[in-house]
Design a protein that fits this description.
The protein is an alpha+beta fold. The chain has one domain: 3-Layer(aba) Sandwich (Aminopeptidase). 30% of the residues lie in helices and 30% in strands. It contains five helices and seven strands, in the order E-H-H-H-E-E-E-H-E-H-E-E. Strand 4, helix 4 and strand 5 form a beta-alpha-beta unit. It starts with 5 loop residues before the first strand and ends in a 10-residue tail after the last strand. The relative contact order is 0.15. It comes from Lactobacillus mulieris. Keywords: Acyltransferase, Transferase.
């Protein structure tokens, strides 16, 4: 999938180096619970697993062909009423925040989900304190639906995750 500033491609084992760099920064764990790999070998294994998922994509910059983020579509369940729904998860390297790049990646993957996969709903779960992602989802047409309180095993406080829903008719971007 190709956008103006970025393109999406499937992961390869060599992307493990970037995954390992992200795993060493707590901001990605705090914002998105990104996996904290113990070493480069584990991160390369993680990249290999991501490569096996048909709807997991590395976000790459046209400027330098570097992996600057990731975006995935997850199945929500196998029951009949969930078959045409999915959940999107995403992460962008902090050096690229607030440049419109994740908006472009999200548009590409949502168009893919609706047009190619036949999805009727795309869900997104975002921690309540992740203001940038919440703002982005709103700009895209996602609507707040509910909140779940998760016990946070990493701190004495609960983590609140807000769930947002996008349907084809709510998109605030052009669907080709």
């Amino acid at each position: 999938m190709i956008g103006k500033k970025i393109y999406l491609r499937h992961f390869v084992k060599e992307d493990g180096e970037q995954l390992f760099l992200w795993s060493k920064k707590t901001v990605y764990f705090e914002k998105a619970r990104f996996t904290q790999y113990k070493d480069l070998s584990a991160a390369k294994h993680g990249a290999t697993l991501l490569a096996q998922r048909k709807n997991s994509f590395a976000i790459c910059s046209h400027d330098n062909d570097k992996v600057i983020g990731m975006i995935e579509l997850y199945e929500r369940g196998a029951s009949e009423n969930l078959l045409n729904t999915c959940e999107v998860g995403f992460l962008l390297d902090e050096k690229y925040w607030h440049q419109g790049l994740m908006k472009e990646a999200l548009q590409l993957v949502c168009q893919y989900a609706f047009n190619d996969l036949g999805m009727k709903e795309i869900w997104a779960g975002v921690f309540q304190d992740n203001d940038a992602s919440i703002h982005l989802l709103g700009k895209m047409g996602f609507e707040y639906i509910y909140q779940v309180k998760y016990p946070d095993i990493f701190s004495p406080e609960n983590k609140n995750e807000n769930y947002y829903l996008l349907r084809p008719g709510n998109c605030k971007f052009v669907r080709s």
